[in-house]
Amino acid sequence: MSDTPKDxxxxxxxxxxDGVGKxxxxxxxxxxxxxxxxxxxxxxxxxxxWSNLTPCNSHIDExxxxxxxxxxxxxxxxxxxxxxxxxxxxxxxxxxxxYSLVSREVIADSIETVAGCEGFxxxxxxxxxxxxxxxxxxxxxxxxxxxxxxxxGTILPGTGHTxxxxxxxxxxxxxxxxxxxxxxxxxxxxxxxxxxxxxxxxTANTMASAIEALGxxxxxxxxxxxxxxxxxxxxxxxxAAVLELLERDIKPSDIMTRRAFENAITVxxxxxxxxxxxxxxxxxxxxxxxxxxxxxxxxxxxRVPVVADLRPSGHYMMSExxxxxxIQPLMKTLLEAGLLxxxxxxxxxxxxxxxxxxxxxYPDDQQIIAPMDRPVKAESHLRILHGNLAPxxxxxxxxxxxxxxxxxxxxxxxxxxxAQARINDGTVVAGDVVVIRYEGPRGGPGMxxxxxxxxxxxxxxxxxxxxxxxxxxxxxxxxGFVVGHVTPEAFDGGPLALVEDGDLITIDAExxxxxxxxxxxELMRRRAAWRQPEPRYARGVLSKYARTVSSASTGAVTDxxx
Length: 562
Prior knowledge:
alpha/beta, EC 4.2.1.9, Rossmann fold, 4-stranded parallel β-sheet, amino-acid biosynthesis, Glucose Oxidase, domain 1
């Protein structure tokens, strides 16, 4: 046991199981199925986000076993462990939603903790919902061991081409009187037909696409149906790929470079992806040690068009994009247009350009991806706004269908629940700019998504007549004239805390500005009278998060260096 030369791929596991001094470690592992032969193999940790609390993750237990089989078949030893997940779709509009973004940090912490303790040589992480995907990526980045990320896959459409956002918007239509309870229940019963992540280009599909473009998933992983042989095969291939990465000592830091993050941003923009990608990509870059800022989204956005007609602002679902080839043909088109860095290394061990060399174009008759010379929008839909309401920046998703400029009177609320009640009862009317504050990373805490109020606005037919701004954030399913991530947040004394009912607010998505019509002197007068609210939680994970979290403009991470 002590004389056997160490396999260079077993840099971490050898410390745990080699030699007579590790007899106790081996005894423990024998009880869970290890054999003498297994102790000599590289160990591949399989981080599973399985849970039956959400359809996004309800099938991932099988996928984790497939990944473990792939590692075993390639000469390694797969070891499955779980981390948590929560469901935004279930928690939206409740106090529980404050745990959503917090869960990203908990997931990263737990993957780092388990892998760091147990001595895994490489990892596969399988995510299937909004926060567990960037959480997995941040855990892999912290460990910096040969790793592959696998997306759990997209859900299929519900009856009548419905999805989770259809249900949220049905509730708004009911409050307006356009649907009765039976019609709402019919949508509720049929919109979510089985396993998989929410079906539009919402946050889950956005982040899956970004991670594939980043080079950390195998080609095609982001565009597969959750219930498919292709997804099962993807998982098995990922387990085997880690052994090849170990052989070549290719680590996340070799793949997650500045140029790779630029590729990820480019693909997110082309697909019309979620505003959450801004928050998560900055957080992932921070974790791996790459400088990325809000300004990068603006700079890249000037040259990258939106070409995908995907929900929530468009018509099609991810499963329909899967049917015509996924994102690989789009990436090849972007590469040929000079918009992607083809020399970036990926988890295949090849460059992005090499991976795309033999990819076929989309069918001629498809309607989902527009030609580059006739895009859905000539520049990015993700607008980084600055002004006296957001000196450090804010993030808007403006497709142009809402218009590009909105001016209206502030209607101010101190919480999502308060705003939701006033939208439903008709207090919010055309011409209003709904301001929801004290929902930022520290003030919420947890930076809740505002899918419920934005869906209510759309359901009440006010999507083009009401704007909404917040220091919280939005679901990828939100659409309309919405601005989030306003920084500094209100809890820290940001200008959003100083707005009063009736103040004139102007949002300009061409000039990329967001301003309140108040003089510097008036803002100073209001600031002098403002007092920071007491924290909403004194103990527990939300309190700990609020004390450690950084600004949304730096990714809302909890491990930012001093």
